[in-house]
Amino acid sequence: MPSNQWSTATSTGPSLEKDPLIPSYLRGSRLAGRLQAAHRAKHAASAAATRDNPRSGQSSGAGSLSTSSSSVNLHKPSPASHRGMTHDIIERAAPAAVYEDQPSPLPSRWSDTDKASGLELSDNGLEVRCIGLSKTSHEEAAAVRADHPMPRECGIYYFEVEVVSKNKEGLISIGFSGPKVTLSRLPGWEPDSWAYHGDDGNIFACQSSGKSYGPKYAMLDVIGCGVNFRTGSVFFTNNGNLLGNAVTLPSSKTATLYPSVGLKKSNEKLRVNFGHTPFIFDIDTLVQKERRIVMNEVNAANVSTLTSPPLSENQLIHKLIAQYLAHDGYIETARAFAEEVRQETQALTHGTGVALGMQDLEPGEDVDAIRRQKIRSAVLEGDIDQALGYMQKWYDGVFAHNENIYFKLRCRKFIEMIRRLTELQDAAAGVGPEPRPQRSGHSSTGVSSSASPAFSAKKNAAAHRGVPGTGDRPLSAATDEFDVFDHQMELDEQLGAPPGALQGNGGGAPVEGDWETVMDTSDDVGQGAGGVRRSHSNGYGHGRPVHKDSYSRLLAETLDYGKELKMEFSSDPRREVKKALEDTLALIAYDNPRESPLRELLEERGRVPVAEELNGVILVSLGRPCTSALERLVAQTEVLLGELSGDGGAGAFVNLFDEDEEKKAKEEGVGS
Amino acid sequence: MSFSTVSPSTPTRHSFERRVEEHKPSKMDINAVIMDYLIKEGYPNSARKFAVEANVKPAPDEESMQARVEIRNAINAGNIQTAIERINELNPEILERDGALHFALLRLQLIELIRTTLAPPSTDIMPALNFATTQLAPRASTNREFLDDLEKTMALLVFSTETLMPQLSELLNPDLRLKVADRVNSAILRSQGAHREAKIKEWVRARKWSEQEARRSKKDIPARMRLGLDGEEVEEDDDEVMNGNGEDTDML
């Protein structure tokens, strides 16, 4: 049997890109978030391996992604769920820091090794069959445990077992046990084991005599077993019916418990569901209820004592937001917010004659705040050169102590150049058959694909600005372009294209000028003749001469810059730097980087962490705390919740980043 | 002790503080939560500026905020009649379906009427009495809680402002407007399909709750955890600061 029980949670498939197994009832939980983050980190590492041959990696990557979208455990749209490639991972550091260790993997199958010899596994360890008890080792029964224990930080863990076939005199036991419990007896009979037995419907808790609990069960019955680590309650279900509390576990917060089943007669067979497929019992609702109980407790918390003197919840939130906005250099927002809160508070005093303690949320005059905001804007717009220029002007020397962010900025510049190259390609190739909906900043000029066919250059310009590519540009086009480039580069060099002429501007400085001129008229000319556009969609059409120049020039620039980047950083011994550098530079190798395994690097939202980290180091260089109170509050809460969930406490049911996360992923999926 | 310079709690504190320091919540997540607050609680100018400055997408739909902002402002300023009319224009089902909220608004309106009688020039209590008998009394007769609230409110007419008992003077506190405005805002949001309160509220509560829980279950955490808001900003707040005690009693 081709299995490796130590592989990962995704033992049912060979694909490393598959999402981790998250049972439905754990979706949106803290543990699910941690498992996904860990999985992404692992995926990012393994993706590097498949990247040796970019073109083949490209197709296999896309393929396995699409197959995984049909999988039950899928929680978010695939592309969005893989949001953390190398760069992001360095940046986001996940909630890993909150915990001292990796998230505990979930049980995913029966163990090949932690199993009595009288049992045989099949279907990737989901099915277990009794092949006869071993007489030599005096087996009274044959039991098996899952590959991983039930993680306490689930809060509630639940799995189901279907009785596929059962002998008339058979005795089946379904439950869980500690790692050292003998496998030659049925779970429930031994200390440290608990189980619901099929022959009598009794519950066995660490002893060989049982207590009456539920109905007997036999062939085709589906038995569920759940543990609520918060309350210690153990419950079972029978064909979707909750049988109620069976037993309460001793209050040990550390005991490790594995799902376990035991059989006695040959050919008896069980099939387990660790969340691979929907459960018969509606465990999701039960977990939701539990979550609501905890959230009601949370929502009843009186926050006024978080500060001294006490603030009302509103005041506290206002203060946290105002301080965050000022701290992070969102000056305009900070002013507007202070003003709006002031108006709100003033209205309150209307007619009441009560003078309220007005909070002054107005940010102070702060030249650094304005500068920081300028730098952030430049990065967010993709204008890395501008940001670097500002840095040199105002914060010269900050990079000396912060090579990391300098490196990231330099990489980002390369990425921005690639982004523009792909935009130029799109423009040249015309608009593909199914343009993606686009909501990002590129449409800011308001120019869309409505340009007149008589002005194909303008059309292309419009496409360049307004509509992203569709990724199906013919391969030959790129190769072609690379060939052209060889000659073109020489030409450019002879002409002495000024270095930096095309660098790092969100729209590309000189290019920008060209486009703007063209586009200024395009709005006037081009309405209602979109149908002809298609005639250009298979090639460069008339637009090509216009683009070839800028494209080749930019390509040359990009290559030169890439070399420069490599020279500057390739001697850096750090692994993450090497890797980030490799990934970044590898973008140039792809025909269409947006469809490559590295596509995440290209996304516009990748600018945000760079901008924020840069802001952070400037703050530190100014001797200010690098985190705001709000961030500190979140960090403290995360660490506290980590403490409260590790041993199965109520913290398991609180997730600061749940549904909004989902919604955002959806939005980002559309917007990028 | 031989290691007199080292406090006994140092090792734990280090571990906890180090983890807090190392944990960097994603700015994107924080910005999204701030935008969520600005939109849900109705700060349209701030939301617009924030969308630009922080590059948060999609940009907020200010139109959907406008009605909520106007209604909130009306309640905050004590113009309850205006607020009720605006709510009904927006969606008459909101108050039809939520009798308690409707009653809370009407009672606030009564309080505002009484407030005007307490101010020196006007002492005519008739408008307030009329309003109470026509608008509130019929509703209160069917519900014990409403009746209590109404009786308590009417007591305001009997006592002079100086001698009011705390639970009565509380009614005149503008904080009540805030609370009602908040309930109205949530109700409108729900009617528009947004079922959650602003996420940041959950964050601050979760912070408080998780600390309580951790202390209760004797986890190794520092004796005091500062937010970093204290200090420079706190001195400005003096005794006039309203405190939020009792707020949790009227969770929706």
Report on this model:
The complex is a heterodimer of chains A (672) and B (252). With 672 residues, chain A is an alpha+beta fold. Chain A contains 19 helices and 14 strands. Chain A has helices spanning 30-50, 54-68, 78-81, 86-92, 283-299, 313-327, 331-349, 367-380, 384-394, 403-429, 456-466, 475-495, 509-525, 544-569, 575-586, 599-602, 607-621, 629-645, 659-671, and strands at 110-115, 119-122, 127-130, 142-146, 156-165, 173-177, 193-197, 202-205, 211-212, 222-228, 233-238, 241-248, 258-263, 269-273. Chain A has a seven-stranded antiparallel β-sheet with strand order 1-4-13-6-7-8-9, with no helix packed on it. In chain A, a hairpin with a 4-residue loop joins strand 7 (193-197) and strand 8. The longest helix of chain A has 27 residues, at 403-429. Chain B has a domain at 80-188. In chain B, helix 7 packs antiparallel against helix 11 (175-191). The longest helix of chain B is centred in the middle third of the chain and has 20 residues, at 99-118. The interface between A and B is large, with 104 and 89 residues.
